[in-house]
């Protein structure tokens, strides 16, 4: 039988990337996302003894992430979010391949668009991007699967429009890509 | 560009290594909780004993005469006090430390004894408390039966059914809230202690 610390380490290792990406959806700044990640992990550690396996581990984790992120955002609301850290990171990758750079630019754009969504929409889109099934998203949010479907379609449409706006803003540099989700 | 491409890009994004260090549990806080729960357990055992003694006193000197001198009433009193005594003695035997212990979470003896006490609560909530309540109810029914031997059948039936309903209702509520309290207060501490015991045994 695994000890609490072993269980925790296993969960952290298996879900590190996924949870961190969800944090990035909530707070675009990588340093702030890292802070949020730490807080989520502290919550996971504290809640681990009460996890009885009634829900899927991933559902339980997403719920913790969602609740922690909401509290975190509330605390951060007065501070304007920025992508400076990410952009600085981008500038450093000057020698990287063009493809990787384009991917970074695309992600940057996506993060900017996600940052314009509402809290719940951010979580939903981050879970959709992680390819979490609709049923599980519904369980995390406590709403019906059909409602999740409606919300996802609406968010995808919104993201498409925001991405197009972003592209239009940089059309000369980007070459005028269109987004149809 | 379609959504799948975005999904792919999202999942392949750079993964800055989170600078995360596993938090250590706050042992002082847990020890405080363990001590508090043990005190609570001691207090409830103490109150149970006081209840038995007080009831015995009042029954013997005051209440018995109101119930009459029927043999059924005496049997009822014996059943009630039997249940009360067994519950009280069981509580003391199973949930109290019977040797000197240093209250430290690095002491295997202390952790084991605390776990034993708290697990007893869980066991008693599942088996002993319902059994004890059933016995208590049966005892009261016998006392009522003995006290109302000369009353009309209708009155006796009403009294028995009313008492049974009252016992089921109060017993059900008591067990429900006690279990809720166990889940809320004892269960997290039991989990912590189980982890600690595991670690202590691995050392």
From TrEMBL, chain A:
Domain RNA polymerase sigma-70 region: 15-78
Span of domain RNA polymerase sigma factor 70 region 4 type: 108-159
Top-level taxonomic group: Bacteria
Coiled coil: none
Pfam annotation, one family: Sigma70_r2
Keywords: Sigma factor, Transcription, Transcription regulation
InterPro entries xrefs: RNA_pol_sigma-70-like (IPR039425), RNA_pol_sigma-70_dom (IPR014284), RNA_pol_sigma70_r2 (IPR007627), RNA_pol_sigma70_r4_t2 (IPR013249), RNA_pol_sigma_r2 (IPR013325), RNA_pol_sigma_r3/r4-like (IPR013324), WH-like_DNA-bd_sf (IPR036388)
Keyword Transcription regulation among record annotations: yes
Family listed: Belongs to the sigma-70 factor family. ECF subfamily.
PANTHER family recorded: RNA POLYMERASE ECF-TYPE SIGMA FACTO, RNA POLYMERASE ECF-TYPE SIGMA FACTOR
Protein name (record): RNA polymerase sigma factor
Organism: Rufibacter roseus
Automatic annotation (TrEMBL), chain B:
Source organism (scientific name): Rufibacter roseus
Name by which UniProt lists this protein: Uncharacterized protein
Keyword Membrane among UniProt keywords: yes
Domain of life from the UniProt record: Bacteria
Membrane-crossing residue ranges in chain numbering: 41-63, 75-93, 120-145, 157-177
Alphabetical UniProt keywords: Membrane, Transmembrane, Transmembrane helix
């Amino acid at each position: 039988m695994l000890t609490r610390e072993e269980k925790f380490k296993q969960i952290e290792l298996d879900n590190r990337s996924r949870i961190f990406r969800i944090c990035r959806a909530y707070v675009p700044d990588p340093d702030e996302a890292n802070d949020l990640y730490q807080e989520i992990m502290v919550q996971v550690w504290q809640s681990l003894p009460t996890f009885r396996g009634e829900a899927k581990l991933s559902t339980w984790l997403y719920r913790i992430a969602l609740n922690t992120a909401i509290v975190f955002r509330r605390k951060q609301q007065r501070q304007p979010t920025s992508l400076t850290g990410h952009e600085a990171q981008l500038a450093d990758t000057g020698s990287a391949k063009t493809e990787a750079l384009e991917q970074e630019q695309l992600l940057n754009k996506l993060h900017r668009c996600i940052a314009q969504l509402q809290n719940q929409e951010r979580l939903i889109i981050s879970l959709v991007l992680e390819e979490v099934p609709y049923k599980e998203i519904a369980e995390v949010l406590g709403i019906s699967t059909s409602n999740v479907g409606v919300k996802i379609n609406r968010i995808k449409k919104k993201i498409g429009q925001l991405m197009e706006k972003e592209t239009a803003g940089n059309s000369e540099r980007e070459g005028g890509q269109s987004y149809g989700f | 560009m379609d959504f799948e491409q975005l999904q792919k890009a999202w999942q392949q994004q750079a993964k800055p290594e989170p600078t995360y260090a596993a938090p250590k549990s706050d042992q002082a806080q847990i020890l405080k909780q363990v001590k508090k729960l043990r005190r609570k357990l001691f207090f409830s055992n103490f109150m149970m004993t006081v209840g038995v003694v007080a009831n015995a006193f009042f029954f013997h000197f005051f209440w018995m005469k109101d119930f009459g001198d029927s043999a059924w009433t005496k049997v009822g009193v014996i059943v009630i006090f039997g249940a009360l005594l067994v519950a009280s003695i069981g509580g003391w035997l199973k949930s109290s430390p019977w040797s000197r212990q240093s209250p430290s979470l690095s002491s295997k003896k202390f952790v084991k004894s605390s776990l034993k006490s708290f697990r007893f609560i869980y066991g008693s909530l599942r088996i002993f408390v319902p059994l004890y309540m059933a016995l208590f109810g049966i005892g009261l029914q016998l006392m009522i039966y003995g006290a109302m031997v000369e009353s009309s059948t209708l009155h006796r039936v009403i009294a028995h059914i009313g008492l049974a309903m009252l016992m089921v209702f109060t017993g059900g509520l008591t067990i429900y809230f006690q279990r809720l309290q166990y889940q809320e207060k004892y269960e997290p501490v039991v989990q912590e202690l189980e982890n600690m015991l595991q670690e202590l045994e691995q050392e």
